[in-house]
Amino acid sequence: MEQLVARWAHNPKVVGSSPAPATSESLANMRGFLYFCVHLLGPVVQWIVRKPPELKIQVRFLMGLLTLSLMKKTGFIVFILVTVTIFSFKTKNVEVNEWNIQTNLSDVLFTLGEPFPLHYIQHKNAELVKKGKEIIFYGRTTNARNKKTKRQSKYFVCTDCHNTKIEDPSLFLPEPEPRLAFAIQNNLPFLQGTTFKGIVNRETWYNDDYYKKYGKAVESSRDTLINAIQLCATECSQGRKFEKWEIEAVLHYFWSLDYSLGELGLNEKEYELLNKAIKEKRKDASLIKLLKSKYAQKSPALFGDAPYDKKKGYENITGNATHGAWIYEKSCMFCHDEKRLSNLNLDYEKATFKLLTKNLTLHNEKSVYQAIRYGTKPVPGKRPYMPHYTISRMSNQQTEDLVAFIKKQSGE
């Protein structure tokens, strides 16, 4: 920094027409100016971005005067350059005429007074959105030198366990039974992990019983999306931690999956209330509460157990083989068809169903009951594993539906 100041001090274009070294007073003024730029200018510009447009010109004018007063003899040219930079600073236009079905939910919440979350990104970068999407779907992207990055995991990509579209007919009340019907209707897999759609609109992650599986690692991840992403990368995906720029890219992509107002199912009266708040330019906690009543701020995760007597199955539950066929198609075959993600190959051959039926009563991962409720564990030499299904992702009824289908196909 001192070398930079010295070059400026000896530059006649900055300090004046004389190439002689600047006085100690000029040097002190320059240091004061640099201190101002580093410690004051950035936060003030950020503050301007989030304020109504009518305040911007006034504040920028005051900043120019403040800069001039600090500079004194350091040169009018530098003042001009700084002022032009300030006035050309790209700001997000917060002036909104009307909210509609395409408006991002987060934009509405922040305008109404909702605090910005830690994972908030103000200026979205299309190139980073693209790179983030590549990481989510393919496990790698290209770096600043346009070279392919190292795969995040040798075994999984994010979409092996997570959808990227809406997967529940009700965003406020996500339940496994209607989710399965929705998956069939919209040709979606029926997976262990919650969809990434709307992930930035949630307030907690790794909820409820996940502390039983990951212990203290959940503490720092439950309320911080960045930490939750890293936990998923290292534990769930059995891979490496993301680099800082990769996390930024993933967050950019996640923000592209922000809910829209149209996806919340607002009625005409509710749109009128929201747009009235725009015209009056007011914060409104009641409207924030209204919007949050339309979607879940967390994804429930309640762990379950296999039935005590696997011959009888879950008590007082009768399986539906038709629904079980849907689960076999949208869940089991998604990972096990031609050993896509597992050493266990599944198909629609009668011999396969006979083997699954035979293993039902076992007390190990070969039992469908055991695999669904407890998953399998990575072991040395075989790191790929099967994540378990929480009750929130596959109910006991659905487990019995799957068992009913397997038994039917086996001829039992």
Describe this structure in words.
47% of the residues lie in helices and 0% in strands. It starts with a helix and ends with a helix. It is globular, with a radius of gyration of 28 Å. The longest helix has 26 residues, at 24-49. The protein has 412 residues and is an all-alpha fold.
Name some characteristics of this structure:
disordered N terminus; mainly alpha; 17 helices; 412 residues
**How many alpha or pi helices?**
17
Oligomer: single chain
Distance between the termini: 80 Å
User: Which structural class matches the secondary elements?
Assistant: mainly alpha
> What's the count of strands?
0
Largest sheet: none
Q: Mean pLDDT across all residues, rounded?
A: 83
The radius of gyration over CA amounts to 28 Å
List the helices and strands and how they pair.
Elements: H1 2-9, H2 12-15, H3 24-49, H4 56-71, H5 76-88, H6 105-112, H7 126-138, H8 176-186, H9 211-214, H10 225-236, H11 244-255, H12 268-280, H13 285-292, H14 321-336, H15 350-358, H16 368-374, H17 396-410
Helix pairs in contact: 3-4, 4-5, 7-11, 14-17, 15-17
Give me a quick take on this structure:
The protein is mostly helical and 412 residues long. It is 47% helix and 0% strand. It has helices at residues 2-9, 12-15, 24-49, 56-71, 76-88, 105-112, 126-138, 176-186, 211-214, 225-236, 244-255, 268-280, 285-292, 321-336, 350-358, 368-374, 396-410.
